[in-house]
Amino acid sequence: MNAELNPNATPFNPVMNERRLKVIQKKGEVIALLKKGVWVYIILLLTEGAIRKWGLPRLSTPLLIVRDPVAIWMLFLAIKHGLFPSNNYVWSMVWVSVFAFFIAISIGHGSMSVAVYGTRILLIHFPLMFLIGSLFKREDVIKFGKILMWVSIPMLLLIGVQFYSPQSSFINRGVGGDVAGGGFSGALGFFRPPGTFSFTSGNTQFWSVVGIFVVYFWLNPSGVPRLLLIAASICLIASIPLSISRTLIFQIVITVLFAFISVSKNPKYIGRMLMASIGIVIAIMLLNKLEFFQKSTEALVSRYTDAGATEGGLEGTLGNRFLGGLLGAVQQTNQPFFGYGIGMGTNVGAKLLTGDVEFLIAEEEWGRLIGEMGTIMGIIVIVIRLSFCIKAAWLSFKRLSTRDILPWMILSMAFVFIAQSQWAQPTTLGFSTLIGGLLISSLKIEKPEVDEEE
Question: Cα(218)–Cα(239) distance, rounded to whole angstroms?
């Protein structure tokens, strides 16, 4: 029927028009509220360790999952208003986690609290990754990158003070106010600083994300203050030796390699890449004249040499840390068909079950998954994570042909973290959830990338 003659059409139905307008307005308000929830999640991710160490040390144990209530509230609100991210990845993970929960409490370890703690990883934070992706727009991702570069300045000052301060000092106080210190053994008598995070891994992940946006903004400087970009770049370079982290080195190398690939697909970026490279060389030369940078570099080189010899050099390090040990995980034959129970492979699960913090199943992520849930369900979870990463990689690579390198640069960290990072550790889980959400957001087609310098 012709719309002009249809009495139920919008122009002739002011009541329906008003209702639709209210629904749209309400949905917009909910989306705005949920986006605020994402920013709260980010703030808690960056400050959770500081609160547990310096703010409320007596509440350090419950604050370990301080982001969970925010995540649950966001998912509940999204479900209530029809905004829950419904796709095969989410629902497959939901059903596997629910099944694993009942297996754990029935024929597994039998601990309800351990099963809940383990299930929340897949049931709450994995869907939240997709919700963040649906809520954030490209402009929100760019905004986050700029904010992170501002945060990198005080963060560098903090880890610098932690690096040169004794572990007994307040600035190095451990989780729960532990006077033994929160730094991990590094080299030459120096400890790896945790920054505002509970453990040093959080500091490494923070600077890994900073690295993504520093490289991206060098290739796409529009709208970014040049002084901020230079300052963040210097902070990133200085953070590498101060962190005494080989993982950070590998991640920065991966990000730079991704940048070179994007340049090969878009020759217009060659000049900017050259400028950035020259700037990095100059920054390193200037920093190398400073005593703090020289000492931290010596410590990093020492740790890299010692650890490389222990783990069999670069091959052993990459095989154990970055390839996840899938073959070794699958070859575990002395475990139940349905595993020992979800949550048992986490440090919290071990503490609840035995009273000690230890790896009851496996230190590597894929080994933990298969050990907790058995070969079939464990591999299903691994396949879900890998298939998402592979699809995201393909879509990101295709976007290079449209001169949109943002998804590709975020992928440089997201692929490894979503595929095989240790989600049993809350901070790592938080960064994986966030970086996955940013990747999904950057892949949404809203408008073509505009380069003001063209």
Answer: 18
Which amino acid, 410? I
Helix (H), strand (E) at residue 191: strand 190-192
pLDDT in tens, 80-132: 999 998 899 999 999 999 999 999 999 989 999 999 999 999 999 999 999 99
Q: Identity (one letter) of the amino acid at 196?
A: T
- All structural domains of the chain with their residue ranges: 21-443
Looking at 246-364, list the stretches that DSSP marks H as alpha helix, in order from N- to C-terminal side.
246-265, 270-287, 291-310, 313-317, 326-330, 347-354
* Beta-bridge partner residues of 184: 192
183 DSSP assignment: P
Report which DSSP code applies to 336.
Answer: -
Please state, in angstroms and rounded to a whole number, the distance separating the CA atoms of residues 255 and 253. Answer: 5
Q: Which residues, 6 or more positions from 420, have their beta carbon under 8 angstroms from its beta carbon?
A: 322, 323, 324, 364, 365, 366, 385
Q: Where are the alpha helices (DSSP H) in 51-137?
A: 67-80, 88-106, 112-120, 126-135
**Gap between the Cα atoms of 75 and 86, Å rounded:** 12
Taking the C-alpha atoms of residue 350 and residue 387, their distance in angstroms, rounded to an integer, is: 30
The string over 303-327, giving b where at least 16 C-beta atoms fall within 10 Å of a residue's C-beta and e elsewhere, is: bbeeeeeebeeeeebeeebbebbbe
Residues 130 and 439: their CA atoms lie apart, in Å, by 10
Q: Confidence band (pLDDT; 50, 70, 90) for 223?
A: confident
Helices (H) and strands (E) in the chain, counts: 17, 2
Going along 257-364, which residue ranges are E strands? none
Q: Whole-angstrom Cα distance, residue 122 to residue 381?
A: 9
